[in-house]
Design a protein that fits this description.
With about 625 residues, this protein is an all-beta fold. It has 4 domains: about 1-15 and about 240-325, no CATH class; about 20-235, Jelly Rolls (Sandwich), CATH 2.60.120.200; about 335-555, Jelly Rolls, CATH 2.60.120.200; about 560-630, Immunoglobulins (Immunoglobulin-like, Sandwich). Strands 3, 5, 6, 8, 14, 15, 16 and 18 form an 8-stranded antiparallel beta sheet that branches. A hairpin with a 6-residue loop joins β42 (about 560) and β43. The termini are far apart.
Length: about 625
């Protein structure tokens, strides 16, 4: 029988008892200075440099966790793993888990908190429940974070360097696959409810089963000690609940340009078995009675769009289930112009044209606007820096012809990026009709004291083709990202003349076609890679606001550059085989070679080994490629 709940539900039936499941327990108490890979751990990926060792001098201890047989792990503090390089990453497998929740706990002590993730779960190939650390905005402090993606959602709490903390990471299978993080400095709460709200919660694409735990080295200057890894299916060995909450679904009650509401449906099994007290932080509880019904659905209705819902269960069982907010945002029609005409200080994803992807520091509406010849700016602008949430704007899905996304960008400061040419990131990209990203990304890096933009067909920094153009901080730059569904060519155009022809600064042909594009995203990566960026006057359309000639967009017919990598000579052939102008640029953007020739072979013995950009112009058509010289 259906019934409507109040905000507090109490149902009484008989008691029960089940055993929790210990899934993984490793105190890392191996021989001093031995390798993890000599003690049951496997190499993740291919890197074998800078192997991870254990040491007795850096063992961590936490009262009640690893201080003897009666402690949570049943172990005594001893050695620990040291993550202090960039190189070998490792994993250790366990029996696959594919339902319910996983709690993985471990001790950590951070001496240098460079931004990145250092521990996670996996199914062997896909990584989830990643534990992050970063330097805090408060000098000498750090923040911990969590994510299923490469962008952490961080706690606003500050934590101390050189201090041992107990981290608890909860991964929930199904639904939005939420992950939650608790950071404990002392004591072990008797229940998840007693621990209070997690310091960070997010969600994202998960996996259907977990088969291992991983440790990661990502920066030569990181200094992180990890000890006492323990994984179970309940909070610190509490009795598991026979009431099983399954993957939830969220449905928007309406999709309009105004603020809408949504409804959550949570199926359950194993009901009619205990005393359950339910409450929610928002909306109205309803649905089936899990104390008298074996299977059914719990509902939470009338939840304001953009508000997360947390279902709390006490009584025979105690747990929390966080469901990230639905965003009932309409799809923007093309052509789509976004002047960011919103109130200064507003969070961009609170506006109806924009949706949030991941959680973290928000992209904000900034005062004033940016100008560019041929464009009359209106409204305000947006700004972001460092790591945080991504903002996505959906538009009419396109699967043929062309699609362009153009905007004015101003990089005000690159000095926050520590390493020249090395700390790189993509900050703008096309999406498919859902929320997954496609292979069309605009990158940025610091090159000396200037900014440099690049284009890639995936998320790998080594595969970026960089434009030779360098820009002084504070300069307004007009960028246009284009994709042609026939040629499969993704193109970046820098500073075209509005209303006139433009030649692509960088062009890369995708190895696989994109079936559709239905969104555009601005992305925040990390404090070490994303500079202070201001964006204005975004335009998305199937035609560009300049005239990009067919010859320029379709590249040079029959172009073939070989060998690549090259040694002393380079062969360049085309269908036309007409006179060509060939310019080669080093990674700093400096022109190091220029010739005009009708020959197919050019001598490059004057160039040192390294990575270059080669630009070929023939009959008014221009193509840019990456060139490696051995």
């Amino acid at each position: 029988m259906k019934q409507i709940y109040t905000l507090l539900l109490t149902f009484l039936v008989g008691s029960f008892s089940f055993a929790q499941t210990e899934i993984f327990n490793d105190g890392l108490n191996y021989t001093n200075e031995s390798l993890l890979t000599d003690n049951g751990w496997n190499i993740t990926g291919t890197s074998t440099t800078e192997a991870i060792t254990v040491g007795i001098d850096n063992g961590l201890s936490y009262a009640g966790y690893n201080d003897g047989a009666s402690s949570y792990t049943g172990l005594t503090a001893g050695n620990a793993a040291k993550l202090d390089q960039t190189g070998q990453d490792v994993n250790k497998t366990f029996t696959a888990v594919n339902s319910g929740s996983l709690y993985y706990t471990f001790l950590v002590n951070v001496a240098d908190g460079r931004t990145g993730y250092f521990a996670h779960l996996s199914n062997g190939t896909t990584f989830v429940a990643k534990a992050f650390v970063r330097p805090s905005a408060t000098s000498g402090k750090i923040n911990f974070g969590i994510a299923n993606s490469n962008t952490g959602t961080y706690s606003t709490n500050d934590y101390e360097l050189n201090t041992t903390y107990l981290l608890v990471v909860k991964y929930e299978f199904g639904g939005t696959t939420p992950v939650s993080l608790w950071v404990l400095s002392s004591g072990i709460p008797a229940s998840e409810i007693a621990a209070g709200a997690p310091v960070a919660t997010t969600s994202g694409a998960g996996v259907t089963q977990i088969t291992g735990v991983n440790l990661r080295q990502y920066d030569a200057d990181q200094d992180i000690t990890v000890d006492g890894l323990y994984i179970t299916n309940t909070w610190f060995k509490t009795t598991p609940c026979s009431l099983n909450l399954l993957a939830e679904t969220s449905t928007c009650d309406a999709v309009t340009v105004g603020l809408d509401t949504y409804t959550i449906t949570i199926p359950f099994t194993g009901g009619n078995s205990g005393t359950y007290n339910f409450s929610t932080n928002v909306g109205t509880l309803g649905g089936d009675n899990p104390s008298t019904t074996a299977t059914g659905n719990i509902t939470i209705s009338n939840i304001p769009e953009g508000t997360n819902a947390t279902l709390t269960m006490t009584g025979t069982c105690g747990l929390t289930k966080t469901i990230l907010a639905s965003q009932c945002k309409p799809t923007n029609t093309l052509p789509y112009n976004e002047p960011f005409d919103y109130t200064v200080g507003n969070i961009l994803t609170n506006e109806q044209r924009w949706s949030m992807d991941n959680i973290g520091d928000d992209i904000l509406v900034a005062t004033g606007n940016l100008s560019y010849p041929g464009i009359t700016p209106t409204g305000n602008s947006i700004s972001f820096v460092g790591g945080g949430a991504e903002s996505r704007t959906p538009f009419t899905s396109t699967d043929s012809g062309n699609i362009f996304a153009s905007f004015i960008v101003n990089i005000s400061n690159v000095s926050t990026i520590p390493r020249d040419l090395t700390d790189v990131t993509y900050f703008a990209l096309f999406n498919d009709n859902g929320t997954g990203s496609t292979n069309a990304r605009i990158w940025h890096r610091r090159n000396g004291d200037k900014s440099q933009f690049g284009l890639s067909t995936d998320h790998t920094p080594d595969n970026v083709v960089w434009s030779p153009n360098l820009y002084t901080p504070g300069t307004n730059i007009y960028l246009s990202l284009g994709y042609n569904f026939t040629s499969h060519l993704v193109t970046l155009v820098e500073n075209p003349t509005i209303g006139n022809s433009a030649v692509a600064s960088v062009s890369v042909t995708l190895t696989e076609a994109i079936s559709e594009i239905g969104g555009f995203m601005f992305r925040q990566d990390s404090n070490n890679t994303t500079p202070a960026i201001t964006i204005d006057e975004l335009r998305v359309d199937t035609t560009s606001d300049y005239t990009l000639s067919t010859a320029s967009f379709n590249n040079i017919t029959g172009l073939n550059i070989y060998p690549n990598p090259a040694n002393d000579v380079l062969h360049i052939t085309t269908s036309a085989n007409e006179i060509k102008t060939i310019a080669i640029y080093d990674v700093m953007g400096k022109e190091v070679f220029n010739t005009t020739t009708a020959n197919e072979t050019i001598n490059i013995t004057s160039l040192n080994a390294g990575v270059y950009i080669i630009k070929i112009t023939e009959e008014g058509k221009t193509a840019t490629r990456k060139l490696v010289i051995k």
